Amino acid sequence: MMKKPTKILTYALFVLLLGGCSWLSPFKLDIQQGNILDEEAIAQLSTGMTEEQVVFLLGTPLLTAPDNPAQWDYIYQLRRGEKLLEREKLRLMFTPDDQGNLRLSEINHQP
């Protein structure tokens, strides 16, 4: 039968060794950020669409350039901890029509 200090020391050593095992890393959640880009909605985009039509299909953009409000960026990324698992970017450019309304002129999709 072990003496009490030996038993405590054995348990403490076991806990320290178990804590150092790499397979016991903490659970890391998947973190989604940005706009979830639906491929069907992106396929429906066409040049000449109004801003309202684009917002109806995709929602509001994640970013608009401060110096160029005619550039909209939809960005989606999925991370697990520090590791980037997935990234998708959609940039839309608008130009004014004859009445001064902005119309979709360029679609740049990077899946």
Can you describe what's shown?
With 111 residues, this protein is an alpha+beta fold. The protein has a single domain, classed as Beta-lactamase Inhibitory Protein, Chain:B, domain 1 (2-Layer Sandwich), CATH 3.30.1450. 26% of the residues lie in helices and 40% in strands. The protein is built from 3 helices and 5 strands, in the order H-E-H-H-E-E-E-E. It has helices spanning 4-19, 39-43, 51-58; strands at 30-34, 63-65, 68-80, 83-96, 102-110. Strands 1, 2, 3, 4 and 5 form a 5-stranded antiparallel beta sheet that branches. Strand 3 (68-80) and strand 4 form a beta hairpin. It is rod-shaped. The N and C termini lie far apart (65 Å). The mean pLDDT is 86.
What is the topology?
Blueprint: H1 4-19, E1 30-34, H2 39-43, H3 51-58, E2 63-65, E3 68-80, E4 83-96, E5 102-110
Antiparallel strand pairs: 1-3, 2-3, 3-4, 4-5
